[in-house]
Amino acid sequence: MRRSALDWRRFIRGDGPQSAPVHLHQRRVYILPTRRGMVFALLLLLMLVGSLNYGNSLAYLMTFFLSGIWVVSILHTYRNIIGLNVSTNAVEPVFAGENSRLSVVISCIDRVPRRAVEVRVGATTPGRCDVDGNDTAATTVALAAPRRGRFALPVFTVCSRYPLGLFRAWSPVHIRGEHIVYPTPVAEASLPLERTDERSGHGDRGQGADDFAGLRNYRSGDSLRHIHWKAVARDQDLLTKQFGGDQTEELWLAWDDVPEVDDEQRLSILTRWVLDAEKAGVEYGLRLPGVEVELGRGSDHQSRCLTELAVFGRPD
Amino acid sequence: MAHTPPIAKPRSPMGWWLLATVAVVALPHLLRMPSLMALGCLGLFAWRAAHQLTGFPLPGRALRVVLTVSMLALVVVSNLTVLGREAGAHLLIAMLLLKLLEVRSERDIALVLIVSFFATISMFFFSQSLLVAGQALIAVLLLLNMLMAVVHPVDSWSTQREHLRHVLRLSLHALPLTVLLFFLFPRISAPLWGLSQSDAGHRTGLSDTLAPGQVSNLSDDDSVAFRVEFTRNPPGENMYWRGLVLWHFDGNSWRAPHQLVRPPEVTSRTVLEVGGEPVDYAVTVEPHSQRWLFGLDMPASTPSGAQRTSSLELVVEDPLLERHRYELSSYMRYRLEGDTPPDARYRELPGGYGSRARALAAQWRAQGRNDAAVVEAALAHFATEPFFYTRQPPLLHEDLVDEFLFETRRGFCEHYAASMAFLMRAAGIPARVVIGYHGGEHNPLGDYYIVRQSNAHAWTEVWVPQQGWRRIDPTAVLPPDRIEAGTESVRERARDSAGVRVGERGWVGRVGATLAHGLDTLHHEWNRWIIGYDQRRQSELLDNLGLPDVDWTELAALLGATMSVVILLLATWVFVRRRAHSDAVRRLYARFCRKLSRKGLEPRRFETAADVQRRVERRLPERAAEVSQILGLYYRLRYQPAPEPGTLQALRRAVRRFRV
């Protein structure tokens, strides 16, 4: 079925998400006067009335020249936006309550230099950039991230008021993509001391008489030999290894172990645990109802865990 | 969370540009202000400049209120009112400078710029000289530059240069629309409300009294008095258009009392002998609210509806309130009443005036000359003595004739015609003053002559036995270097007449004269075509373009149509010049991608042709074959070292045919 330009539903809703790069062609770019442009037009009207009344030739001339400028700036402002290719870079995940940073890449495939191109999302500070002809530029704009989850990239606007600020040309851009917002971690939560009942088979890793049982914050008087030096090498706080029993260096962060009832609070605590575990350099795994992340370490593993926490319970 | 724009920061380059812009805008106003007012404005400006230079703090709200009130007081003190042109302009400048002191946000700057535009245009209501026009142009360009800087902050000189170039480009693009609007926008003649300019202008042309200064007032008026189409024997030069004959001098002005009140005398008493070929012509005269018509010296026939007086003037019953066309024929060679000595009234002189002039005339008589010789002596007197032709002569107070002939010796045609007539009457020769027009501008497009109010002229007629009434034009014998620049019609007269010519001057003098003439022509043309462009001139222009009698609705439609065409052309120019790829293959491929992008199928980054093909097959199966062909051609052209000759054409055809 051929989508006609007069499809009113598309006009209201807009096209669905596009894949990058989005080309700003004529049907996607709109232009309207700004408030300054309307004031300027009013000024011209007053000038015209004055010239008419006094029959003053130079006043006519100036009025007409500025009217010509007003009309011509429509063309110039439109030309500043049309023909651009817009795409986005992957968005770094953030924690709920912070702002995501959306990096927008604008590329100009003709030789017209573009100036004062803005990218706007919602009410946050817009990103600004200049793009030279046959060149590319990038700018970042903040995305509000109040809640956790996995979100599709919102529709943002590429717009400009260049050259004279009398008109504003804009194009709504809807790029297919997503950004993830992790739950807000609580300020502090001590890691659970995992005691495995069954013999895990890993046994003592040769650290001491007992098996490793977990970590706790350093207290003065602890033996220096029990300090977890790997963490110190990573510029983290002093931690003391605890030993006892047939323990292994594995840490399971489980939903059921969280001493909270509220779901979101649980997730916040689990988030803090994941962060702390990663900081401690321990192998850790995540157990949530219906989801399990096996033991592991490293930033990728941390991202995976945090992502699972972010999207937990969300059908999208 | 106010974001301070870069302009507002001290020592920023944009701040300097803002100051410079406001300075250019305000300067002509400051020059016209009374000193107290100007000082106040300069103080405000200096405060802002100090802030820009050293970070000196700007006034807070309380201080600003005080400043506003004091500026208002200054305006009232300087003008005794807040209404009217002068006071309004002063108020505008004061407000502008006050606003400059509180520029904090982008909106403040925009307001300053808008008010500056107003201030610039308000200058035109005081003066429309070339200088003011030039200043206004610079001011407008600077203001546009500032508007641009607000939208796109300037951080380096190269950006600034780019901005200035862009402003010039915008201006260039706006020029065609400006010209169209200026010439085709319907002009109205009456003001919309009662506040018209102080000068009334002489829309009525000549009047029936030659008081000093009457004709010179018209010399700046370029409106058309009448047009002439010659059907037979156009004379080309020496075209004196007879209007009214004045014969009564009361020491102050020349008049023709009772002339038009009592019924005109029967023409049969006036004997006009003519010779040579007649000149046939038709005159279209603009309404001038008087009762006379104009004819070439000497009219030999009487137009229908008019009557010829004994002095061969042409009069009609009712004052002319509409454009009127009439036909005449005249003879350039004539003898008017050669055998009949004229009436005694042509020899009357008021007592108590011009004693020295009478003495001069008596001196010529005493040298034993006859009438004709006295006339020649008078002409030679004007030619050789230092008489100057100027439109701004010194005022004459008591004895107009003596002061002019012996003291000031500077005047225009009225002075010369009047004093010539006086001298002749003092010598006992009948003389009278004729007012009318001289010369005319040939319009080759319509093959007619235009006679303007600026061609208004006054000359003398003297009666010599056997020769009858002869036309004597004293201004025609003035040598060119004694004629003030800008009075072309006078120079025409000097050319026409066979009068005495001064010897050639050196080449320096000639170059200087050419430059002066050039400058004057520039000024003259500026006045004519730009300043003087009004409803009459507009109708003239439309007439010349072949559109007579266009009313304002038709004109508005024409304007709208031409403007649309121009805007369309401009849009094409602006958008077509975007094209970058000189490479035909890249261009065709880009076009292909544009077409695909309408369906969201354009090739993405890092996609191969096969991927594109697959997507097209899924979404648009009916186009899959075409897409495959185009991609194949493109890759062949792009990557094959030596593609076959017809491939580019094939690609071009295929892309053109491709429809999504």
Structure description:
Chain A is of the alpha+beta class and 316 residues long. Chain A contains six helices and 17 strands. In chain A, 28% of the residues lie in helices and 30% in strands. In chain A, the strands form five sheets. Chain A has a five-stranded antiparallel beta sheet. In chain A, strand 6 and strand 7 (127-131) form a beta hairpin. Chain B has helices at 13-32, 35-54, 61-79, 85-100, 106-122, 130-151, 157-184, 214-217, 355-366, 371-384, 400-408, 413-426, 488-496, 507-531, 535-544, 552-576, 584-597, 609-619, 624-639, 647-657, and strands at residues 209-210, 224-232, 240-246, 248-249, 254-255, 272-285, 292-293, 295-296, 306-308, 314-316, 324-336, 388-389, 410-411, 431-438, 441-443, 448-452, 456-464, 468-472. In chain B, the strands form five sheets. In chain B, strands 11-6-2-16-15 form a five-stranded antiparallel beta sheet, with no helix packed on it. A five-stranded antiparallel beta sheet of chain B has the order 8-3-14-17-18. A three-stranded antiparallel beta sheet of chain B has the order 1-5-4, with no helix packed on it. The two termini of chain B are 49 Å apart. Residues 194-203, 260-264 and 496-504 of chain B have low confidence and may be disordered. At the A-B interface, helix 2 and helix 3 of A face helix 5, helix 6, helix 7, helix 16 and helix 17 of B.
Write the layout of secondary structure elements.
The complex is a heterodimer of chains A (about 325) and B (about 650).
Chain A: H1 8-13, E1 22-23, E2 30-33, H2 35-54, H3 57-81, E3 84-88, E4 94-95, E5 99-108, E6 114-120, E7 127-131, E8 135-144, E9 149-152, E10 156-160, E11 167-173, E12 178-182, E13 212-217, H4 229-233, E14 239-243, E15 250-254, H5 263-280, E16 283-288, E17 291-296, H6 299-311
Parallel strand pairs in A: 4-12, 15-16
Antiparallel strand pairs in A: 1-3, 2-11, 3-5, 5-8, 6-7, 6-10, 9-12, 10-11, 13-14, 16-17
Chain B: H1 13-32, H2 35-54, H3 61-79, H4 85-100, H5 106-122, H6 130-151, H7 157-184, E1 209-210, H8 214-217, E2 224-232, E3 240-246, E4 248-249, E5 254-255, E6 272-285, E7 292-293, E8 295-296, E9 306-308, E10 314-316, E11 324-336, H9 355-366, H10 371-384, E12 388-389, H11 400-408, E13 410-411, H12 413-426, E14 431-438, E15 441-443, E16 448-452, E17 456-464, E18 468-472, H13 488-496, H14 507-531, H15 535-544, H16 552-576, H17 584-597, H18 609-619, H19 624-639, H20 647-657
Helix pairs in contact in B: 1-2, 1-4, 1-5, 1-6, 2-3, 2-4, 3-4, 4-5, 5-6, 6-7, 7-16, 9-12, 17-20, 18-19, 19-20
